[in-house]
Amino acid sequence: MSNERQDVVLGHAHEADGIEEYDNKLPTWWVGLFFGCVVWAGAYLAWFHFVADTSQAKMYQEEVAAAALAWPAPTADQALAAAATPEAIEEGRKIYMANCVACHGPAMKGGIGPDLTDATWIHGGGLADVQKTISEGVPAKGMLSWGPILGPQKVAQVAAFVHSSGGGM
Ligand code: HEC
Prior knowledge:
By secondary structure, this protein is mainly alpha-helical. The chain has helices spanning 28-51, 56-70, 76-83, 86-99, 101-104, 127-136, 147-150, 152-164. 54% of the residues lie in helices and 0% in strands.
């Protein structure tokens, strides 16, 4: 490309450590690219916001919705089962022996309270059901509300123990 002003030093204050500034004409391809980008940006902006009516918030919500379909949230039973580790069940056994034997018997075969090892459940045999019965109790029938007494962690542990002991569904 012919350029008669090639390598003309600007000669003003823009000098640092012996480096001076040229005032060369920019190559046509560069200028073309620059203005091309400006035009493209305007067109893209119009397309993104108005023609295609796209937004990142909308894309995000679509991705979250797709993920919810791909990975459904665990049910209450699944979430509780994940926490029912052998350690939690062993802790639950100790809590049972200390608090529940008087009414449900040392082998959980029942007494004042019902058998907890058979498949017959008054209040449901799912892990979440058992946990709810223990936590809230059935005061009218003589089963205490253990939630306030034991606290949520111990209730979960003893529920895991009861559920793991045969009759759980
Ligand atoms: C004072 C006696 C008593 C004690 C102590 C007791 N329970 Fe009960 N429990 C009962 C009675 C009575 C019922 C039956 C309630 C009904 O008929 O609705 C029952 C019901 C239950 C049920 C529901 C059974 C079903 O068929 O749905 C579970 C689970 C249970 N108890 C767990 C426990 C655990 C765990 C403990 C110890 C933390 C405990 N209970 C301590 C008397 C007791």
